[in-house]
Design brief:
Elements (H helix, E strand, L loop, with lengths): L1 H35 L6 H22 L15 H36 L12 H26 L14
Helix pairs in contact: 1-2, 1-4, 2-4, 3-4
């Protein structure tokens, strides 16, 4: 199970990287096409879709790589059971919020599909297609937070490199 979960997070990270390359490609295509005197419709919209996809798909990989910014003003002063309780509380709240975000992201995808929402830019892309990236990213983040919660409960959670206080 551990190998599958780590593969999921790494795969989402690689997809995020590919979408960042997509942003670069769309921006370069937009610049080159303007300089060459022709218009490629939708480059701005597709750059935006790729940027959103990269951001959401990178969330879980960033969390599992201990790269999310954490405010440790309170938790950094705690040790033992108090710290563990606070970690579990924070992970519980984060998982609930990520779960709600995933739920509403998929609901938005469904509603956009049902209502035939399309982009107002020149590309007229059905909006449910790029919104899938948000749903996938939020779902993988939710899974990663549940994974972290379970690891904390089992006392197997790894701390970030700069975190010197342990139980």
């Amino acid at each position: 199970m551990r190998k599958a979960l780590d593969g999921l997070y790494l795969g989402a990270g690689w997809l995020a990287a590919l979408f960042m390359i997509g942003v670069l490609a769309m921006v370069l295509l937009s610049i080159v096409s303007r300089l060459a005197g022709f218009y490629v419709p939708g480059t701005d919209a597709y750059a935006g879709y790729a940027m959103a996809g990269a951001g959401f798909l990178a969330l879980a990989h960033t969390l599992k790589s201990h790269e999310h910014i954490r405010v440790t003003l309170i938790i950094g002063k705690l040790t033992g059971g108090a710290r563990r309780g606070m970690e579990l509380w924070a992970l519980s709240v984060a998982a609930l919020m990520a779960g709600a975000l995933a739920w509403f992201s998929w609901r938005l995808v469904w509603q956009s599909h049902q209502f035939h929402d399309i982009s107002t830019s020149a590309d007229a892309t059905p909006l449910w297609i790029p919104q899938i990236l948000m749903g996938v990213g939020c779902t993988v983040l939710f899974i990663a937070l549940i994974d972290e919660w379970v690891l904390e409960v089992r006392a197997k959670r790894m701390r970030a490199a700069g975190d010197t206080r342990h139980e």
